[in-house]
Write a structure and sequence with these properties.
The complex is a heterodimer. Chain A has ten helices and two strands, in the order H-H-H-E-E-H-H-H-H-H-H-H. By secondary structure, chain A is mostly helical. Chain A folds into two domains: 193 residues, no CATH class; 58 residues, no CATH class. In chain A, strands 1-2 form a two-stranded antiparallel ribbon. In chain A, helix 3 packs antiparallel against helix 4 and helix 9 packs antiparallel against helix 10. The two termini of chain A are 18 Å apart. By secondary structure, chain B is an alpha+beta fold. Chain B has a single domain, classed as Beta Complex (Ferric Hydroxamate Uptake Protein, Chain A, domain 1). Chain B has four helices and eight strands; from the N terminus they run αβαβαβαβββββ. In chain B, strands 3-2-8-7 form a four-stranded mixed sheet. In chain B, a hairpin with a 2-residue loop joins strand 5 and strand 6. The chains are: A mainly alpha, B alpha+beta. Strand 1 of chain A pairs antiparallel with strand 1 of chain B, so a sheet runs across the interface.
Chain lengths: 293, 185
């Protein structure tokens, strides 16, 4: 069930660049809400089961932490709610904190989706020929965290099997975790060197070498690439013309409801929900096919 | 389990320490309704807050602030007013008391939050540093001269005239050619 992931790597890469760029360079609450929702919905189709809710809980806490931080350091705004050590905590600062939190969490979710969809073989297929060294480093950097987590769990299990820090006390667990972490730092350095050596031994990046891949650029890919480009250009044009300008200080600006601005929201919404729509369509088709058996 | 309880105790103690160090006031408590009465023998100073330079640099102003609500037409945020000078009052104390009395918004960076050893006024009446170009911010003069001290390090005398002025050009447009004396920088 990976309709979106089956697209050509070039289309996927362009899509993620477009979405990440637009999310990172806007502070407009409508766009950020669409971006956050789109990313979470897409991620829900990729990561099913218990992992989804556990992550959602974790990111909800992160969201609140970021949202609370802004009013502690920024005291601008016309609506003071209360005063903290002689500086106002304002409604505007809290709203802006929520906005910043939406921006950061949506970007984290897009990156999580990216790492699930753009596997390192796709990335190396795109850039392995043009910039071999950089693309190897980048693909190693991008898979570093998942690999690190995986290996940390394995080391942790091994430690537990040996009976180290197996107590129920949280302090013991924390100390065990620190020990695993120090093991992991050494291991990851060594692993990176090993990977580099191994790739060199295989002749990676040498002239005249070809590599096998199954990716073919079909008409469907072309349509999606064109669609992404058009939506991206439309939203970018809206940004340049000031329709997506938004300010929180000193007073929260009203959300623009000009026709052009609404078109920008629609375009951005389509762009953000594109993978989710694709995945849902595929899932429905699957359910329908199963029901006919 | 014993270790857990010890750690929990430490965390609770830290939380209590942090909470005791924060003072929470409601809006009504913060804004002063009454200020020291001026009597015959009290020492006084004059204080005013102006932003005339913004009117001359309207194009550089942040578009969200281009309204009479934030920049008064005559550039006067606080008329020249006489205030009681309590013993040991710094310019910052006076400004703080005046803004609290007149319900003027003011944000400052505390003495411990910067490297200058003095409070730094970031914004008054929603007009912040950098709101009107990269060289803009708040400055103060005492009897027309720039003291060259941070506002919580300068202690005015009886009868001094303190003026807070908004500059759009690092002080040059309000008569400070040396570039020093920018709130002590």
């Amino acid at each position: 069930m990976k309709a979106f992931g089956a697209l050509h790597p070039l289309v996927l890469f362009c899509y993620f660049i477009a979405v990440l760029f637009l999310s990172a360079f806007t502070s407009h609450p409508v766009l950020l809400a669409l971006s956050l929702l789109g990313a979470v919905c897409f991620w829900a189709t990729l990561e099913q089961g218990g992992g989804f809710w556990r992550s959602m809980g974790y990111y909800a806490v992160l969201f609140l932490l970021i949202a609370v931080t802004n009013p502690l350091f920024s005291h601008n705004g016309v609506t003071p709610l209360f005063f903290l050590n002689g500086n106002p905590v304002t409604l505007e600062a809290i709203l802006m904190g929520i906005d910043i939190a939406a921006l950061m969490v949506s970007i984290i979710f897009w990156c999580k989706c990216y790492s699930l969809v753009m596997t390192s073989d796709k990335f190396l297929y795109l850039f392995g020929r043009i910039v071999p060294k950089l693309s190897l480093v980048l693909s190693m950097a991008l898979r570093f965290i998942p690999l690190f987590q995986n290996q940390a769990q394995r080391v942790g299990r091994a430690q537990k099997a040996m009976g180290l820090y197996a107590g129920t006390s949280y302090v013991d667990k924390l100390r065990g975790g620190l020990r695993v972490f120090s093991v992991m730092v050494t291991w990851s350095l060594e692993n990176a060197v090993d990977t580099g050596d191994s790739m060199r031994a295989r002749g990676y990046g040498l002239k005249g070498r070809t590599s096998f891949s199954l990716f073919r650029f079909t008409l469907r890919d072309g349509v999606f690439l064109a669609g992404t480009a058009i939506l991206f250009a439309a939203v970018l044009a809206g940004m340049r013309m000031g329709y997506l300008h938004f300010t929180f200080y000193p007073e929260v600006a009203p959300v623009q409801t000009a026709l052009a601005a609404i078109w920008c929201y629609v375009c951005y919404g389509l762009l953000a929900f594109l993978p989710f729509i694709l995945e849902t369509e595929e899932n429905l088709k699957w359910i329908y096919s199963v029901s006919k058996i | 389990m014993k270790k857990d309880l010890l750690v929990l105790l430490a965390v609770v103690l830290l939380a209590v320490f942090v909470i005791r160090g924060t003072e929470i006031q409601s809006v009504d408590e913060y804004y002063l309704t009454h200020i020291d009465d001026i009597s015959e023998d009290s020492e006084t100073v004059f204080l005013s807050i102006r932003c005339d330079t913004i009117l001359e640099n309207w194009d550089a102003l942040d578009s969200a602030l281009r309204s009479e609500q934030y920049v008064p037409k005559d550039g006067v945020i606080l008329q020249k007013t006489e205030y009681v000078l309590r013993p040991g009052d710094s310019v910052f104390d006076l400004l703080s008391r005046a803004t609290r009395h007149h319900k003027i918004q003011m944000e400052y960076q505390g003495v411990r939050d910067n490297g200058y050893g003095s409070a730094y006024i970031r914004g008054i009446h929603y007009l912040y540093e950098f709101s009107c170009g990269p060289l803009s911010g708040w400055l103060y003069t005492v009897n027309g001269a720039f003291p060259g001290y941070g506002c919580s390090k300068y202690f005015p005398k009886d009868g001094d005239v303190i003026e807070w002025k908004y500059t759009c050009d690092l002080g040059r447009d309000v008569g400070n050619d040396s570039g020093s004396g920018l709130q002590g920088r």
